[in-house]
Amino acid sequence: MTSEITQILTRVQVEQKIRRIAFEIYENNFEQSEVILAGVSGEGYVLAQRLADVLQQIAPLKATVMKIMLDKTLRQQPSIHLDGAETVFTGKSVIVVDDVLNSGRTLAFALQPFLNVPLTSLKVAVIVDRDHKRYPVAADYIGYKLSTTLTEHVEVILSDQERMGVYLR
Fold it and tell me: Residue limits of the Phosphoribosyltransferase domain (predicted)?
C-alpha cells in the first residue's frame, strides 16, 4: 500500500508565510525591545530560527531564540527542558513556536515552563493549523489553516532546503 503525498505549500509559499508571521509578531510587539521565540524541538525550533532571522531584517527589536526540548511521541511528558534560564524570558513577550497545531497536546506541554513566570505576553505561532483540537490551545499566528481528516498526516519540512514545504500524506 503506497501513501500518496500531496504538496500543500512550496518552499516559496512557506517563506512567504514565515515573513507574514514575522510582520504580525512585529506589529503586536513593536513597543517591546525584545521577543523570545521558543521553538519546540525539531521543525518548530527551525521555524523559530527563521522567524528570528526575518525579524532581524524588518524590525529594530531583538529576537532571542530558545529551544523547548520534549518528546512529541510521548503521551505524558516527565519534564520539559529549555535551553535557557527563566531570567532570559522573565518580563518579556514569549512566542511558543511549532510546525503544526493538530490536537494541541504538544503545545499544551510546551507552554508549561512559562506558566509560573511573569511575562508581558505568551502567544503561539505555527505554520499549519489543522484544527483538530482536543486541548484548549489556539494559535495566535498561523501561516496556513488546513482542513484534514484525522487519518491524514501533515509534514512540514524546513530544515532541508531542497524539500522545504508542507506535505499531506
Answer: 6-144
C-alpha cell at 98: 511549532
Q: Is 37:21 a contact under the CB 8 Å cutoff?
A: no
Short-list 121, 85, 94, 99, CA closest to 42: 99
| Residue 113 grid coordinates | 515552563
Strand-pair category, 93-101 with 34-40: parallel
Cα–Cα distances (Å) from 164 to 9, 31, 36, 107, in that order, read 9, 33, 24, 23
Contact (CB, 8 A) for 4 and 151? no
Q: Please state the length of the chain.
A: 169
Note the pLDDT tens digit of each residue in 78-131.
Answer: 778 888 777 788 899 999 999 999 888 889 999 988 988 899 999 999 999 987
Q: Give the right CATH number for 6-168 from 3.40.50.2020, 2.130.10.10, 3.40.50.300, 3.40.50.720.
A: 3.40.50.2020
Three cell numbers at 80?
520539559
- Alpha helices of 30-150 — where are they, by DSSP H? 43-58, 86-89, 105-111
